[in-house]
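Quick one:
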Amino acid sequence: MRVLVTGASGLLGLNLALEASSKHVVYGVVHHQQISTKAFTVLTADLLDAGALGRVLDEARPDWVIHCAALANLDLCEDDPELARRLNADLPGLLAVETAQRDVRLLHISTDAVFNGQSGDYSEEETPSPLSTYGRTKLEGEHAVAIANPDAIIARVNFYGWSLQGDHGLAEFFFNSLKTDKTIKGFTDVFYCPLLANDLAHILLRMLDANLSGLYHVVSSESLSKYEFGVALARQFGLNEGLIMPASIEEGGLKASRSPIMTLRVEKLAQALNEPPPGILAGLAHFHELYQQGYPKTLHQALNND
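Output:
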């Protein structure tokens, strides 16, 4: 298959494009952050520009499009809600129209942040109630995709992994801090179901291959607090878990509201693919294995200035 991945310099987009390139012809769209790799063809475009989506689709001629591009920084979304709406709501809707017209399969990446996190254990049938601008605009994007391209897959995710510059997301924060013996806080009152980006990538490709459509929760089959995640990561890497101080999210000084219980049910996905997504320890073991194989260095070498 020919696969087009938007946001191909981001944590999920880059890992997804690399994983997909072992079996598919992959095109990755980047904007500000340029990358260089032999694994897939890099296309540079501002997808908000008039006509940019059509040009990229015409050049790549994909069978599948996986839309990872988004404004995912919650605090930046609060600072610039208009840009958040254009990237997280308007752009997915436009892409859904373009792919539907071309009879191209679309998988749109959404988020667990569409829920307010007051109860947790959310199924796909439950009504979202986002707390942040990020969550609200991502939910608007879900609606736009579902209306314009009913055959599309909408995947609500939460993921971690190795990134292009090595400083993106909670897992790398814990790892980098613990490697340098820094004392850090871990929230004991925020619960979630993080899935390794590489494992998530293979699941997303399986979903497309199985010709699924509609809304799915694509997260780990297990949940834990962010503090517990940090401790589990420390143990996996043989680092000092005592450097992680239990703390409440109220001590974090965060601008955007965070959902405290972001746990999602995955029975629908497990039934569709005949197995559940990986658990927490399995994901962290794979994360550690990638580190031992030099995978983070391989990602960093994709930077054009490297």
